[in-house]
Amino acid sequence: MRILVVEDNRDILANLADYLSLKGYTVDCAQDGLSGLH
């Protein structure tokens, strides 16, 4: 399963992406909503 994480705090974004990756998800990250839509 692929998940998009949008979070403006880099530390939270990195930690959440790492956690989800460890759980087997493919993670795409964006630091704002506009970037997340592209």
Write a structural description.
With about 40 residues, the protein is of the alpha+beta class. It has one domain. It is flat and about 25 Å long. The model has no long low-confidence stretch (mean pLDDT about 95).
Short description:
This protein has one domain (2-37). The chain has two helices and two strands. The chain has helices at 10-22, 33-37; strands at 2-6, 26-30.
Largest sheet: 2 strands, parallel
SSE arrangement, N to C: EHEH
Give the neighbour order of strands across the main sheet: 1-2
Determine the structural class based on helices, strands and strand pairing: alpha+beta
Question: How many beta-strand runs?
Answer: 2
The proportion of residues in beta strands is 25-35%
List the topology elements.
Layout lengths: L1 E5 L3 H13 L3 E5 L2 H5 L1
Parallel strand pairs: 1-2
List keywords for this structure.
38 residues, two-stranded parallel sheet, flat, alpha+beta, single chain
